[in-house]
């Protein structure tokens, strides 16, 4: 998705070529380059993380005035991190990942103490705990928490038992994005929309089983408080629903930019990918795109900042977690160039300009003027989680079958 | 003007000479370090297991048992292999059919002094990044892309052709990568074919077509076989074209089924289960090695 425009070894020539391209084009390249890096690793089978696309090299340890972070793209953008570097007189080095599994892999393959802090999605906190990777956070060190939406003040995904392990930084949903110049918004209200026969070969999917199967679960069982808590029989129904959608699927990719391209090029008309994926295209003037949360609800992703258990600079890491909780910082992160998001801190709205408010949804909900669109979406979305009744592999197998059918 | 057949050295070292080991050493060492060792490592990891998202060394057949139990159900790996076989073989045949006339033109149609320059031009696509080329193709092949716009303007079609996110698009991407390699192989083989035999054929009254069909084509058989090997191995191993142009689950006559390489990559990206992914990759590598061995056997000159 994103790479700061600092060419890493091996891509110098491409970087020169890419100067003639827009940043968007560069992001597109970087996302595929990361795929290439993963595939190279597959064949070469090297357990080192050297081949992966990164925003910085990975020295074995960091000194007192360098903070080393493992994050999703966006956190590394100057508008987001420069304030921290100036305030604390330190340098922040980033390694960015695409997907929680890649985050675990990068973390696992680096020597202990490589990273001071990281960004984890809610459901990966448990996995990081299993690895002994992250340390508890004292809520009193994050005073801005009191300004958070109630959901994110004590978000279960960021807690292990009663212990807070991460602080929310950004969230978003996997609702239905679509081209409203082709399909009138009045026709896009329910997940059933994705099964329409006239959409054959017109859907784009983000290639990950959790959001797609979670949304299918919501489509079938909207009253279920946890869409990932399904009986085996219900899981079979989810599978059948996915298979019904399959003829409509044209693109399944982990690359956000490939999805955006497919929308812009007219190759796809819709997809359960959410607003954050296409908001960059909208910001670029493609007003024909929009996204909604269907009436049954949608799956929501939640990113949070956590401190690494082996951090050589735990205090500085703590300071970064606190910094990321500030509304002015979350406002910049929400409007990051890599992809857009929403802020857990309510006060963010004071730091957004009118265009940003319009784009991100910090405006009155047309169907309920007493709420912001952001707030009603937050109410109508359910956190992405791990399967509870089956192991992950059972779900992944179903997802693989969906892709290979 | 006649050329000696230069496909083989004029003088080969004595079979019994110890020198041959020194001559072979760089090849053996290079292949050992950069091919055999990683391959053995890959195969070895395929027998490991995972615990708490870490790969644990050991020897277990569980990965293979699980994979083979899902050949036709659940993950349906056999279908992805079938898709790969279909796309790779058709891409290879296309590559040879398109590149053979091109190489013929280079050897027999381009004046000697311009040939090097012409070959340089033929392999020019290699000077740019593969990924950039795939994205360039994306802008050409998409619904509102150059190709469809042109055909619509010329009124050849009324509706844009759905090329992007099909295996047709995947093939185009691979073909663009493959063509310079195949052209180079065929050019070298055709250029080194014995001109005296071609002249003899003409002198004995054969037509141009007969000379081509009965002399030149059989002489270039090794080149065709090597091209086919490169074609199959590159097409079956390539992952990027299937994702960028094929859309990850590109449609073919077998339906919207991903290539096996895409499956391997996605399993790794989705699960980071290195042992299981290694087992999947090993299956692909072994299949390719079998094809390679068969091809080399085919290209062996008959011994008498």
Give the helices and strands, then pairings.
The complex is a heterodimer of chains A (405) and B (304).
Chain A: H1 12-18, H2 23-44, E1 66-71, H3 78-88, E2 91-96, H4 100-108, E3 117-121, H5 124-130, E4 134-135, H6 150-153, E5 159-160, E6 163-164, E7 167-173, E8 176-179, E9 203-206, H7 209-220, H8 232-245, E10 249-253, H9 256-264, E11 270-271, H10 275-283, E12 289-292, E13 298-308, H11 314-324, H12 327-334, H13 354-360, E14 364-365, E15 368-372, H14 373-380, E16 381-383, H15 392-403
Parallel strand pairs in A: 1-2, 1-3, 9-10, 13-16
Antiparallel strand pairs in A: 3-13, 4-13, 5-6, 7-13, 8-11, 8-12, 14-15
Helix pairs in contact in A: 3-12, 7-8, 8-15, 9-10
Chain B: H1 19-45, E1 49-51, E2 54-56, H2 62-69, H3 77-109, H4 112-122, H5 130-141, H6 146-153, H7 167-191, H8 195-203, H9 208-219, H10 221-237, H11 240-244, E3 251-252, E4 255-256, H12 260-271, H13 274-299
Antiparallel strand pairs in B: 1-2, 3-4
Helix pairs in contact in B: 1-13, 3-7, 3-10, 5-7, 7-10, 8-9, 10-13, 12-13
Describe this structure as you would to a colleague.
The complex is a heterodimer of chains A (about 400) and B (about 300). Chain A is an alpha/beta fold and about 400 residues long. Chain A contains 15 helices and 16 strands. In chain A, the strands form 5 sheets. In chain A, strands 1, 2, 3, 4, 7, 13 and 16 form a 7-stranded mixed beta sheet that branches. A 3-stranded antiparallel beta sheet of chain A has the order 11-8-12, with helices on one face. In chain A, a hairpin with a 2-residue loop joins strand 5 and strand 6. The longest helix of chain A has 22 residues, at about 25-45. The two termini of chain A are about 30 Å apart. Chain B has 13 helices and 4 strands. With about 300 residues, chain B is mainly α. In chain B, helix 3 packs parallel to helix 7 and helix 12 packs antiparallel against helix 13. Chain B has a two-stranded antiparallel sheet. In chain B, strands 3-4 form a two-stranded antiparallel sheet. The model of chain B has no long low-confidence stretch (mean pLDDT about 90). Chains A and B meet through helix 1, helix 2, helix 4, strand 10 and helix 9 of A and helix 1, helix 3, helix 5, helix 11 and strand 4 of B.
């Amino acid at each position: 998705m994103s790479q700061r425009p600092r060419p890493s070894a091996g891509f110098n020539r491409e970087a020169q070529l890419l100067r003639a391209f827009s940043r968007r084009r560069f992001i597109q390249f970087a996302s595929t380059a990361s795929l290439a890096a993963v595939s190279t690793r597959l064949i070469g089978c090297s357990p080192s993380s050297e081949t992966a696309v990164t925003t910085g090299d990975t020295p074995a340890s960091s000194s007192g005035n360098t903070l080393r972070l493992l994050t999703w793209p966006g956190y590394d953008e100057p508008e987001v991190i420069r304030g921290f570097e100036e305030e604390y007189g330190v340098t922040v080095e980033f390694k960015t990942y695409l997907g929680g599994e890649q985050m675990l892999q990068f973390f696992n393959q680096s020597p202990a103490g490589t990273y001071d802090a990281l960004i984890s999605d809610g459901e990966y906190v448990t996995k990081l705990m299993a690895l002994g990777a992250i340390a508890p956070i004292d809520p009193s060190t994050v005073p801005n928490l009191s300004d958070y939406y109630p959901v994110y003040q004590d978000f279960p995904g960021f807690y292990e038992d009663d212990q807070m392990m991460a602080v929310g930084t950004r969230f978003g949903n996997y609702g239905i994005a679509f081209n409203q110049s082709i399909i009138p918004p009045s026709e896009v209200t329910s997940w059933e929309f994705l099964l329409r026969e006239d959409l054959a070969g017109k859907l784009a999917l983000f290639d990950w089983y959790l959001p797609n199967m979670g949304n299918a679960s919501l489509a079938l069982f909207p009253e279920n408080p946890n869409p990932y808590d399904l009986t085996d029989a219900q899981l079979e129904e989810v599978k059948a629903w996915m298979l019904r959608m399959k003829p409509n699927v044209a693109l399944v990719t982990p690359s956000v930019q490939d999805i955006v391209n497919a929308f812009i090029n007219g190759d796809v008309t819709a997809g359960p990918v959410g607003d954050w994926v296409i908001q960059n295209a909208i910001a670029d003037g493609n007003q024909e795109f929009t996204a909604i949360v269907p009436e049954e609800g949608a799956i929501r992703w939640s990113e949070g900042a956590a401190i690494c258990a082996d951090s050589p600079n735990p205090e500085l890491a703590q300071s970064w977690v606190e910094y990321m909780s500030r509304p002015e910082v979350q406002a910049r992160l929400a409007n990051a160039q890599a992809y857009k998001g929403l802020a857990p801190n309510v006060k963010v709205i004071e730091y957004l300009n009118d265009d940003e408010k319009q784009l991100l949804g910090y405006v009155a909900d047309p169907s309920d003027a007493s709420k912001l669109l952001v707030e009603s979406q937050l109410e109508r979305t359910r956190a992405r989680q791990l399967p509870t009744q089956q192991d992950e592999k059972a779900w992944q197998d179903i997802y693989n079958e969906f892709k290979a059918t | 003007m006649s050329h000696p057949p230069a496909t083989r050295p004029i003088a080969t070292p004595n079979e019994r000479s110890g020198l041959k080991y020194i001559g072979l050493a760089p090849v053996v060492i290079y292949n050992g370090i950069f091919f055999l060792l990683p391959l053995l490592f890959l195969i070895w990891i395929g027998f490991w297991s995972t615990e708490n998202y870490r790969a644990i060394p050991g020897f277990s057949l569980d990965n293979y048992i699980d994979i083979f139990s899902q050949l036709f159900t659940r993950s349906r790996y056999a279908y992805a292999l079938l898709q790969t076989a279909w796309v790779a073989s058709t891409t290879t045949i296309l590559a040879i059919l398109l590149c053979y006339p091109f190489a013929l033109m280079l050897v027999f149609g381009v004046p000697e002094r311009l040939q090097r320059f012409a070959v340089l031009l033929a392999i020019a696509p290699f000077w740019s990044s593969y990924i950039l080329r795939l994205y360039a193709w994306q802008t050409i092949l998409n619904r509102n892309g150059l190709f469809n716009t042109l055909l619509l303007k010329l009124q050849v079609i009324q509706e844009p052709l759905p090329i992007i996110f099909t295996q047709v698009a995947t093939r185009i991407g691979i073909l663009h990568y493959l063509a310079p390699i195949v052209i180079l192989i065929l050019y070298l083989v055709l250029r080194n074919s014995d001109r005296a035999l071609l002249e003899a054929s003409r002198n004995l009254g054969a037509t141009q077509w007969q000379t081509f069909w009965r002399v030149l084509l059989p002489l270039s058989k090794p080149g065709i076989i090597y091209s086919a090997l490169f074609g199959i191995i590159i097409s079956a191993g390539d992952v990027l074209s299937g994702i960028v142009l094929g859309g990850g689950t590109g449609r073919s006559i077998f339906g919207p089924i991903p290539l096996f390489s895409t499956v391997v990559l996605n399993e790794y990206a989705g699960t980071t289960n290195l042992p299981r992914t290694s087992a999947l990759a090993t299956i692909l590598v072994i299949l390719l090695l079998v094809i390679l061995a068969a091809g080399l056997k085919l290209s062996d000159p008959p011994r008498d």
